[in-house]
Amino acid sequence: MLHGEAAKLEQDDAAAVKSRIGLILFGVYSLIYAGFVIINTLSPKIMGLQVFLGLNLAVVYGFGLIILAIIMGVVYNRVCTKL
Question: Which is deepest, 12, 30, 46, 74, by most CB within 10 Å?
Answer without folding.
Answer: 46
